[in-house]
Design brief:
Layout: H1 2-19, H2 40-43, E1 56-69, E2 89-103, E3 106-117, E4 143-156, E5 161-164, E6 173-176, E7 179-187, H3 209-212, E8 227-236, E9 239-246, E10 248-249, E11 257-258, E12 265-277, E13 280-293, H4 298-305, E14 322-336, E15 339-348, E16 362-372, E17 377-390, H5 393-400, E18 418-429, E19 434-444, E20 457-467
Antiparallel strand pairs: 1-2, 1-20, 2-3, 3-4, 4-7, 5-6, 7-8, 8-9, 9-12, 10-11, 12-13, 13-14, 14-15, 15-16, 16-17, 17-18, 18-19, 19-20
Region (Disordered): 27-51
Protein name: Carbohydrate porin
GO cellular component, one term: membrane
Protein backbone atom coordinates (compact mmCIF):
# COMPACT_ATOMS: atom_id res chain seq x y z
CA UNK A 1 0.00 0.00 0.00
CA UNK A 2 2.90 2.38 0.74
CA UNK A 3 4.34 1.72 -2.73
CA UNK A 4 0.91 2.26 -4.29
CA UNK A 5 0.59 5.59 -2.44
CA UNK A 6 4.03 6.75 -3.60
CA UNK A 7 3.23 5.86 -7.20
CA UNK A 8 -0.14 7.62 -7.04
CA UNK A 9 1.42 10.67 -5.41
CA UNK A 10 4.09 10.67 -8.11
CA UNK A 11 1.39 10.78 -10.78
CA UNK A 12 -0.26 13.71 -9.00
CA UNK A 13 3.03 15.61 -8.66
CA UNK A 14 3.78 14.96 -12.31
CA UNK A 15 0.40 16.40 -13.18
CA UNK A 16 1.13 19.44 -11.02
CA UNK A 17 4.35 20.12 -12.93
CA UNK A 18 2.59 19.64 -16.24
CA UNK A 19 -0.04 22.15 -15.13
CA UNK A 20 2.62 24.90 -15.00
CA UNK A 21 2.71 24.84 -18.80
CA UNK A 22 -0.94 25.85 -18.88
CA UNK A 23 -2.12 29.44 -18.77
CA UNK A 24 -2.17 30.68 -15.20
CA UNK A 25 -5.59 30.77 -13.55
CA UNK A 26 -7.55 29.61 -10.53
CA UNK A 27 -8.67 26.11 -9.88
CA UNK A 28 -12.22 25.57 -11.11
CA UNK A 29 -14.65 26.44 -8.26
CA UNK A 30 -16.19 23.47 -6.42
CA UNK A 31 -19.22 22.33 -8.37
CA UNK A 32 -21.01 19.51 -10.05
CA UNK A 33 -19.47 18.22 -13.27
CA UNK A 34 -22.33 19.91 -15.11
CA UNK A 35 -21.60 23.57 -14.23
CA UNK A 36 -24.63 24.87 -16.10
CA UNK A 37 -26.70 23.21 -13.39
CA UNK A 38 -25.05 25.16 -10.58
CA UNK A 39 -27.31 26.81 -8.02
CA UNK A 40 -27.99 30.49 -7.52
CA UNK A 41 -24.82 31.22 -5.58
CA UNK A 42 -22.79 30.29 -8.66
CA UNK A 43 -25.04 31.68 -11.39
CA UNK A 44 -26.39 35.00 -10.11
CA UNK A 45 -23.95 37.16 -12.04
CA UNK A 46 -25.23 38.60 -15.29
CA UNK A 47 -22.81 38.41 -18.23
CA UNK A 48 -21.65 41.69 -19.70
CA UNK A 49 -20.89 40.37 -23.18
CA UNK A 50 -21.28 37.22 -25.22
CA UNK A 51 -18.41 34.88 -25.92
CA UNK A 52 -17.49 32.94 -29.02
CA UNK A 53 -18.87 29.41 -29.13
CA UNK A 54 -16.22 26.70 -28.95
CA UNK A 55 -16.77 23.21 -30.34
CA UNK A 56 -14.51 21.24 -27.99
CA UNK A 57 -13.94 21.06 -24.25
CA UNK A 58 -11.17 19.06 -22.60
CA UNK A 59 -10.51 18.87 -18.84
CA UNK A 60 -8.82 16.59 -16.32
CA UNK A 61 -9.02 15.90 -12.60
CA UNK A 62 -7.13 13.68 -10.21
CA UNK A 63 -7.91 13.26 -6.51
CA UNK A 64 -5.84 11.30 -3.97
CA UNK A 65 -7.05 10.88 -0.39
CA UNK A 66 -5.11 9.22 2.43
CA UNK A 67 -7.27 8.52 5.51
CA UNK A 68 -6.69 7.03 8.98
CA UNK A 69 -8.67 6.44 12.19
CA UNK A 70 -7.59 5.88 15.77
CA UNK A 71 -7.41 2.41 17.35
CA UNK A 72 -10.70 1.28 18.86
CA UNK A 73 -11.74 -1.11 21.64
CA UNK A 74 -15.14 -2.52 20.64
CA UNK A 75 -17.01 -4.88 22.95
CA UNK A 76 -18.10 -6.93 19.94
CA UNK A 77 -17.90 -6.87 16.14
CA UNK A 78 -19.92 -8.12 13.19
CA UNK A 79 -19.41 -8.81 9.51
CA UNK A 80 -19.65 -5.15 8.55
CA UNK A 81 -18.29 -3.41 11.63
CA UNK A 82 -15.73 -0.66 11.49
CA UNK A 83 -12.43 -2.43 12.15
CA UNK A 84 -10.83 -1.78 15.52
CA UNK A 85 -7.34 -1.41 14.02
CA UNK A 86 -6.31 -0.93 10.42
CA UNK A 87 -3.69 0.72 8.31
CA UNK A 88 -4.29 4.07 6.66
CA UNK A 89 -6.31 3.74 3.47
CA UNK A 90 -5.66 5.42 0.13
CA UNK A 91 -8.10 6.28 -2.67
CA UNK A 92 -7.37 7.57 -6.16
CA UNK A 93 -9.64 8.81 -8.95
CA UNK A 94 -8.60 10.22 -12.31
CA UNK A 95 -11.14 11.54 -14.82
CA UNK A 96 -10.95 12.93 -18.34
CA UNK A 97 -13.80 15.26 -19.39
CA UNK A 98 -14.33 15.50 -23.15
CA UNK A 99 -17.11 17.55 -24.74
CA UNK A 100 -18.02 18.06 -28.40
CA UNK A 101 -20.64 20.41 -29.86
CA UNK A 102 -22.78 18.57 -32.44
CA UNK A 103 -25.37 21.00 -33.79
CA UNK A 104 -27.34 23.97 -32.51
CA UNK A 105 -28.07 23.41 -28.83
CA UNK A 106 -26.59 19.89 -28.75
CA UNK A 107 -23.39 18.41 -27.36
CA UNK A 108 -22.06 15.00 -26.38
CA UNK A 109 -19.91 14.39 -23.30
CA UNK A 110 -17.55 11.48 -22.67
CA UNK A 111 -15.79 10.80 -19.32
CA UNK A 112 -13.41 7.83 -19.00
CA UNK A 113 -12.33 7.34 -15.39
CA UNK A 114 -9.80 5.39 -13.32
CA UNK A 115 -10.46 4.61 -9.65
CA UNK A 116 -8.57 2.55 -7.10
CA UNK A 117 -7.87 2.16 -3.42
CA UNK A 118 -10.17 1.46 -0.50
CA UNK A 119 -12.18 3.21 2.15
CA UNK A 120 -11.68 2.59 5.86
CA UNK A 121 -12.89 -0.94 6.64
CA UNK A 122 -13.85 -1.29 2.98
CA UNK A 123 -16.34 1.60 3.34
CA UNK A 124 -18.42 -0.31 5.92
CA UNK A 125 -19.35 0.22 9.56
CA UNK A 126 -20.50 3.85 9.28
CA UNK A 127 -23.68 5.14 7.63
CA UNK A 128 -21.99 8.42 6.76
CA UNK A 129 -18.75 6.95 5.40
CA UNK A 130 -15.83 9.38 5.75
CA UNK A 131 -14.49 9.32 2.16
CA UNK A 132 -16.84 10.18 -0.70
CA UNK A 133 -14.23 9.13 -3.26
CA UNK A 134 -14.33 5.44 -2.29
CA UNK A 135 -16.51 2.62 -3.54
CA UNK A 136 -17.54 -0.67 -1.92
CA UNK A 137 -15.42 -2.80 -4.27
CA UNK A 138 -13.23 -5.61 -2.98
CA UNK A 139 -10.31 -5.16 -5.39
CA UNK A 140 -8.33 -2.00 -4.50
CA UNK A 141 -6.26 -2.00 -7.71
CA UNK A 142 -7.01 0.85 -10.15
CA UNK A 143 -9.73 0.04 -12.68
CA UNK A 144 -10.61 1.83 -15.92
CA UNK A 145 -14.32 2.29 -16.72
CA UNK A 146 -16.79 4.57 -18.47
CA UNK A 147 -18.17 7.14 -16.04
CA UNK A 148 -20.32 9.24 -18.39
CA UNK A 149 -21.43 9.20 -22.01
CA UNK A 150 -24.50 11.31 -22.69
CA UNK A 151 -26.17 13.68 -25.13
CA UNK A 152 -27.43 17.08 -24.02
CA UNK A 153 -29.92 19.02 -26.17
CA UNK A 154 -31.16 22.53 -25.34
CA UNK A 155 -34.15 24.32 -26.85
CA UNK A 156 -34.37 28.08 -26.37
CA UNK A 157 -37.63 29.41 -24.91
CA UNK A 158 -36.79 33.07 -25.43
CA UNK A 159 -34.28 35.39 -27.11
CA UNK A 160 -32.18 36.26 -24.03
CA UNK A 161 -28.80 34.57 -23.76
CA UNK A 162 -26.12 34.03 -21.11
CA UNK A 163 -22.46 33.07 -21.29
CA UNK A 164 -21.04 29.71 -20.22
CA UNK A 165 -17.34 29.37 -19.45
CA UNK A 166 -15.33 26.38 -20.60
CA UNK A 167 -15.61 23.93 -17.71
CA UNK A 168 -16.07 20.31 -16.75
CA UNK A 169 -18.67 18.90 -19.17
CA UNK A 170 -19.53 22.40 -20.34
CA UNK A 171 -18.62 24.08 -23.62
CA UNK A 172 -17.64 27.73 -23.80
CA UNK A 173 -20.26 29.83 -25.52
CA UNK A 174 -23.74 31.24 -25.20
CA UNK A 175 -26.84 29.44 -24.04
CA UNK A 176 -30.47 30.54 -23.67
CA UNK A 177 -31.35 32.22 -20.38
CA UNK A 178 -34.66 30.35 -20.50
CA UNK A 179 -34.59 26.86 -21.95
CA UNK A 180 -35.76 23.27 -22.03
CA UNK A 181 -33.03 20.60 -21.93
CA UNK A 182 -32.96 16.83 -22.36
CA UNK A 183 -29.99 14.77 -21.15
CA UNK A 184 -29.88 11.13 -22.27
CA UNK A 185 -27.22 8.50 -21.62
CA UNK A 186 -24.95 7.48 -18.76
CA UNK A 187 -24.25 10.02 -16.02
CA UNK A 188 -24.45 10.58 -12.28
CA UNK A 189 -27.92 11.62 -11.11
CA UNK A 190 -26.16 13.92 -8.62
CA UNK A 191 -24.93 15.98 -11.60
CA UNK A 192 -28.44 17.42 -11.86
CA UNK A 193 -30.18 16.98 -8.49
CA UNK A 194 -29.43 17.94 -4.88
CA UNK A 195 -26.90 20.57 -5.94
CA UNK A 196 -25.32 22.77 -3.27
CA UNK A 197 -22.60 25.38 -3.76
CA UNK A 198 -20.96 24.61 -0.42
CA UNK A 199 -21.50 20.89 0.18
CA UNK A 200 -21.62 18.59 -2.83
CA UNK A 201 -18.20 17.53 -4.12
CA UNK A 202 -15.83 15.30 -2.07
CA UNK A 203 -13.02 16.17 -4.47
CA UNK A 204 -13.00 19.82 -3.42
CA UNK A 205 -15.35 20.25 -0.44
CA UNK A 206 -16.43 18.03 2.49
CA UNK A 207 -15.26 14.40 2.41
CA UNK A 208 -18.19 12.67 4.16
CA UNK A 209 -20.85 10.77 2.18
CA UNK A 210 -23.69 12.42 4.09
CA UNK A 211 -22.31 15.87 3.21
CA UNK A 212 -21.63 15.27 -0.47
CA UNK A 213 -25.29 14.24 -0.92
CA UNK A 214 -28.50 14.00 1.08
CA UNK A 215 -28.02 10.92 3.27
CA UNK A 216 -31.66 9.82 3.13
CA UNK A 217 -31.78 9.92 -0.68
CA UNK A 218 -30.99 6.38 -1.84
CA UNK A 219 -30.07 7.85 -5.20
CA UNK A 220 -30.07 5.48 -8.20
CA UNK A 221 -26.58 4.38 -9.19
CA UNK A 222 -24.34 1.41 -9.70
CA UNK A 223 -21.54 0.72 -7.24
CA UNK A 224 -19.41 3.50 -8.76
CA UNK A 225 -22.18 6.11 -8.61
CA UNK A 226 -23.47 6.18 -12.20
CA UNK A 227 -26.76 5.33 -13.87
CA UNK A 228 -28.41 5.33 -17.32
CA UNK A 229 -31.56 7.25 -18.18
CA UNK A 230 -32.93 10.68 -19.04
CA UNK A 231 -33.21 14.03 -17.26
CA UNK A 232 -35.61 16.72 -18.48
CA UNK A 233 -35.02 20.31 -17.35
CA UNK A 234 -36.95 23.56 -17.52
CA UNK A 235 -34.75 26.48 -16.50
CA UNK A 236 -35.41 30.19 -16.31
CA UNK A 237 -33.79 32.93 -14.20
CA UNK A 238 -34.65 32.24 -10.57
CA UNK A 239 -36.46 28.94 -11.16
CA UNK A 240 -35.57 25.42 -12.32
CA UNK A 241 -37.67 22.27 -12.61
CA UNK A 242 -36.06 18.88 -13.23
CA UNK A 243 -37.43 15.35 -13.57
CA UNK A 244 -35.71 12.08 -14.43
CA UNK A 245 -36.29 8.39 -15.09
CA UNK A 246 -33.18 6.30 -14.56
CA UNK A 247 -32.08 2.71 -14.03
CA UNK A 248 -31.41 0.92 -10.76
CA UNK A 249 -28.73 -1.73 -10.13
CA UNK A 250 -29.75 -5.37 -10.52
CA UNK A 251 -28.60 -6.06 -6.96
CA UNK A 252 -28.06 -3.91 -3.89
CA UNK A 253 -24.78 -2.03 -4.33
CA UNK A 254 -24.27 -3.93 -7.58
CA UNK A 255 -22.09 -2.97 -10.55
CA UNK A 256 -24.67 -3.92 -13.20
CA UNK A 257 -27.66 -1.76 -14.07
CA UNK A 258 -31.11 -3.25 -14.63
CA UNK A 259 -32.68 -2.15 -17.92
CA UNK A 260 -36.03 -3.87 -17.31
CA UNK A 261 -37.70 -0.53 -16.63
CA UNK A 262 -41.11 -2.14 -16.13
CA UNK A 263 -39.71 -3.82 -13.00
CA UNK A 264 -36.93 -1.54 -11.80
CA UNK A 265 -36.53 2.21 -12.18
CA UNK A 266 -36.06 5.45 -10.25
CA UNK A 267 -38.24 8.53 -10.66
CA UNK A 268 -36.87 11.82 -9.33
CA UNK A 269 -38.24 15.37 -9.45
CA UNK A 270 -36.92 18.63 -8.01
CA UNK A 271 -37.83 22.31 -7.94
CA UNK A 272 -35.18 24.95 -7.31
CA UNK A 273 -36.04 28.52 -6.34
CA UNK A 274 -33.19 31.03 -6.42
CA UNK A 275 -33.37 34.43 -4.73
CA UNK A 276 -31.28 37.29 -3.35
CA UNK A 277 -31.28 38.79 0.14
CA UNK A 278 -29.52 42.16 0.21
CA UNK A 279 -27.66 41.14 -2.96
CA UNK A 280 -26.54 37.86 -1.40
CA UNK A 281 -27.70 34.88 -3.52
CA UNK A 282 -29.39 31.83 -2.06
CA UNK A 283 -31.44 28.86 -3.18
CA UNK A 284 -33.98 26.40 -1.80
CA UNK A 285 -34.58 22.99 -3.40
CA UNK A 286 -37.31 20.44 -2.78
CA UNK A 287 -36.65 16.96 -4.17
CA UNK A 288 -38.95 13.93 -4.20
CA UNK A 289 -38.10 10.40 -5.31
CA UNK A 290 -39.58 6.95 -5.81
CA UNK A 291 -37.31 3.96 -6.37
CA UNK A 292 -38.52 0.54 -7.51
CA UNK A 293 -36.41 -2.63 -7.51
CA UNK A 294 -36.35 -6.20 -6.19
CA UNK A 295 -35.71 -4.96 -2.65
CA UNK A 296 -35.94 -7.10 0.45
CA UNK A 297 -38.36 -6.24 3.26
CA UNK A 298 -36.77 -5.70 6.68
CA UNK A 299 -39.95 -6.77 8.50
CA UNK A 300 -40.34 -9.92 6.42
CA UNK A 301 -36.69 -10.85 6.95
CA UNK A 302 -37.09 -10.59 10.74
CA UNK A 303 -40.29 -12.65 10.68
CA UNK A 304 -38.65 -15.36 8.57
CA UNK A 305 -35.85 -15.72 11.13
CA UNK A 306 -38.17 -16.06 14.16
CA UNK A 307 -37.83 -19.43 15.85
CA UNK A 308 -34.50 -20.17 14.16
CA UNK A 309 -30.92 -19.75 15.26
CA UNK A 310 -30.06 -17.84 12.10
CA UNK A 311 -29.79 -14.08 11.79
CA UNK A 312 -32.34 -12.43 9.50
CA UNK A 313 -31.26 -12.09 5.89
CA UNK A 314 -32.89 -9.30 3.89
CA UNK A 315 -31.66 -10.78 0.60
CA UNK A 316 -33.89 -13.81 1.26
CA UNK A 317 -36.91 -11.51 1.63
CA UNK A 318 -36.72 -9.87 -1.79
CA UNK A 319 -39.61 -9.51 -4.23
CA UNK A 320 -40.13 -7.75 -7.54
CA UNK A 321 -41.38 -4.17 -7.68
CA UNK A 322 -40.88 -3.12 -4.09
CA UNK A 323 -40.61 0.64 -3.68
CA UNK A 324 -38.96 3.29 -1.56
CA UNK A 325 -40.22 6.87 -1.25
CA UNK A 326 -38.57 9.95 0.15
CA UNK A 327 -37.79 13.65 -0.07
CA UNK A 328 -34.98 16.16 0.43
CA UNK A 329 -35.09 19.81 1.51
CA UNK A 330 -31.85 21.54 0.57
CA UNK A 331 -30.94 25.21 1.20
CA UNK A 332 -27.94 27.47 0.82
CA UNK A 333 -27.35 31.15 1.51
CA UNK A 334 -24.44 33.48 0.93
CA UNK A 335 -23.92 35.59 4.08
CA UNK A 336 -21.09 37.71 2.71
CA UNK A 337 -18.87 37.53 -0.38
CA UNK A 338 -16.60 35.16 1.54
CA UNK A 339 -19.02 33.19 3.79
CA UNK A 340 -21.90 30.85 2.98
CA UNK A 341 -24.15 28.56 5.01
CA UNK A 342 -26.14 25.48 4.02
CA UNK A 343 -28.43 22.78 5.36
CA UNK A 344 -30.18 19.61 4.22
CA UNK A 345 -32.92 17.41 5.62
CA UNK A 346 -33.66 14.10 3.92
CA UNK A 347 -36.01 11.20 4.62
CA UNK A 348 -37.06 7.86 3.15
CA UNK A 349 -39.68 5.43 4.44
CA UNK A 350 -37.07 2.76 5.28
CA UNK A 351 -39.39 -0.25 4.95
CA UNK A 352 -37.25 -1.98 2.32
CA UNK A 353 -33.51 -2.50 2.05
CA UNK A 354 -31.06 0.18 1.03
CA UNK A 355 -30.35 -0.44 -2.64
CA UNK A 356 -27.80 2.01 -4.02
CA UNK A 357 -26.29 4.72 -1.79
CA UNK A 358 -25.86 4.11 1.93
CA UNK A 359 -27.74 2.89 5.00
CA UNK A 360 -29.23 6.19 6.11
CA UNK A 361 -33.01 6.64 6.27
CA UNK A 362 -33.12 10.20 7.56
CA UNK A 363 -30.42 12.83 7.88
CA UNK A 364 -29.93 16.44 8.92
CA UNK A 365 -26.80 18.40 8.02
CA UNK A 366 -25.82 22.00 8.76
CA UNK A 367 -22.63 23.81 7.91
CA UNK A 368 -20.72 26.86 6.78
CA UNK A 369 -17.79 27.60 4.50
CA UNK A 370 -15.51 30.59 4.13
CA UNK A 371 -12.84 31.72 1.74
CA UNK A 372 -9.46 32.73 3.10
CA UNK A 373 -9.92 36.36 2.11
CA UNK A 374 -9.67 37.59 5.71
CA UNK A 375 -6.20 36.09 6.06
CA UNK A 376 -5.14 37.11 2.53
CA UNK A 377 -5.72 33.67 0.96
CA UNK A 378 -8.84 34.47 -1.12
CA UNK A 379 -8.88 31.17 -3.05
CA UNK A 380 -8.49 28.94 0.02
CA UNK A 381 -11.58 27.33 1.54
CA UNK A 382 -12.47 26.52 5.15
CA UNK A 383 -15.52 24.38 5.90
CA UNK A 384 -17.18 23.05 9.04
CA UNK A 385 -20.35 20.94 9.27
CA UNK A 386 -22.44 18.75 11.56
CA UNK A 387 -24.54 15.73 10.55
CA UNK A 388 -27.09 13.58 12.39
CA UNK A 389 -28.06 10.34 10.64
CA UNK A 390 -30.81 7.89 11.62
CA UNK A 391 -32.61 4.68 10.65
CA UNK A 392 -36.27 3.74 10.29
CA UNK A 393 -37.89 1.52 12.91
CA UNK A 394 -37.93 -1.44 10.49
CA UNK A 395 -34.28 -1.00 9.58
CA UNK A 396 -33.04 -0.74 13.16
CA UNK A 397 -35.09 -3.78 14.25
CA UNK A 398 -33.48 -5.80 11.47
CA UNK A 399 -29.93 -4.81 12.53
CA UNK A 400 -30.76 -5.35 16.21
CA UNK A 401 -31.78 -8.93 15.38
CA UNK A 402 -28.35 -9.57 13.88
CA UNK A 403 -29.05 -8.75 10.24
CA UNK A 404 -26.59 -7.12 7.88
CA UNK A 405 -26.86 -4.80 4.90
CA UNK A 406 -24.03 -3.97 2.51
CA UNK A 407 -22.77 -1.19 4.81
CA UNK A 408 -23.80 -2.13 8.35
CA UNK A 409 -23.95 -5.25 10.50
CA UNK A 410 -22.48 -5.40 14.01
CA UNK A 411 -24.40 -8.57 14.94
CA UNK A 412 -26.55 -6.58 17.36
CA UNK A 413 -27.62 -2.98 17.85
CA UNK A 414 -28.23 -0.64 20.77
CA UNK A 415 -29.65 2.11 18.62
CA UNK A 416 -28.75 5.77 18.69
CA UNK A 417 -28.36 8.50 16.11
CA UNK A 418 -25.04 8.62 14.29
CA UNK A 419 -23.42 12.03 14.82
CA UNK A 420 -20.63 13.33 12.59
CA UNK A 421 -18.62 16.54 12.70
CA UNK A 422 -16.22 17.53 9.93
CA UNK A 423 -13.81 20.38 9.32
CA UNK A 424 -11.51 20.82 6.32
CA UNK A 425 -9.16 23.46 4.97
CA UNK A 426 -8.35 23.60 1.27
CA UNK A 427 -5.02 25.26 0.47
CA UNK A 428 -5.23 26.47 -3.10
CA UNK A 429 -2.26 26.63 -5.48
CA UNK A 430 -3.75 28.47 -8.49
CA UNK A 431 -0.51 28.48 -10.44
CA UNK A 432 -0.46 24.67 -10.39
CA UNK A 433 -4.22 24.14 -10.72
CA UNK A 434 -4.11 22.16 -7.47
CA UNK A 435 -5.26 22.13 -3.86
CA UNK A 436 -4.07 20.37 -0.71
CA UNK A 437 -6.73 19.73 1.96
CA UNK A 438 -6.23 18.40 5.50
CA UNK A 439 -9.48 17.08 7.02
CA UNK A 440 -10.73 15.95 10.43
CA UNK A 441 -13.93 14.06 11.27
CA UNK A 442 -15.29 12.94 14.63
CA UNK A 443 -17.97 10.23 14.59
CA UNK A 444 -20.20 9.26 17.53
CA UNK A 445 -22.19 6.00 17.46
CA UNK A 446 -20.75 4.70 14.16
CA UNK A 447 -23.31 2.42 12.54
CA UNK A 448 -25.94 3.82 15.00
CA UNK A 449 -24.55 1.60 17.77
CA UNK A 450 -24.29 3.31 21.19
CA UNK A 451 -22.66 0.38 22.99
CA UNK A 452 -20.16 -0.96 20.49
CA UNK A 453 -17.49 1.65 21.15
CA UNK A 454 -16.54 3.40 24.41
CA UNK A 455 -15.75 6.67 22.62
CA UNK A 456 -15.92 8.50 19.29
CA UNK A 457 -13.97 7.63 16.17
CA UNK A 458 -11.39 10.19 15.10
CA UNK A 459 -10.64 10.26 11.36
CA UNK A 460 -7.87 12.37 9.84
CA UNK A 461 -7.14 12.70 6.15
CA UNK A 462 -5.14 14.52 3.53
CA UNK A 463 -6.42 15.19 0.01
CA UNK A 464 -4.46 16.20 -3.10
CA UNK A 465 -6.65 17.49 -5.94
CA UNK A 466 -5.49 18.54 -9.40
CA UNK A 467 -7.90 19.98 -11.97
CA UNK A 468 -7.50 21.83 -15.23
Amino acid sequence: MKLYFLRALGVALGTLLAGRALAQGQVTPPASVTPSQQPAAASAQEPTHHTHDENWSLHFQQTIIQQWHNDLSPRYTGDHSLQARENAKLSLTTTLFIGRRLWKGAAVYFNPEVAGGSGLSGATGIGGAPNGETFRIGDPSPQVYLARLYLRQLWALGPAEEDDADDLNQLKGTRPARYLALNVGKFSIADYFDQNSYSHDPRTQFFNWSLMSAGGWDYPANVRGYTVGAVLEYVQPGLALRASATSMPTDANGPTLDFHYDKAQALTAEITKSYNINNHPGAVRLLGFRNQAAMGSYNLAVRQALGTAAAPDVTAARAERRTKYGFVVNAEQEVSPSVGVFGRFSYNDGHNETWAFTEIDHSLSLGATSTGARWKRPTDRLGAAFVANGLSQDHRAYLAAGGSGFILGDGRLDYGLEYIGEIYYSIDFPRYHAALSPDYQIIFNPGYNTSRLPGPVHVVALRVHVEF
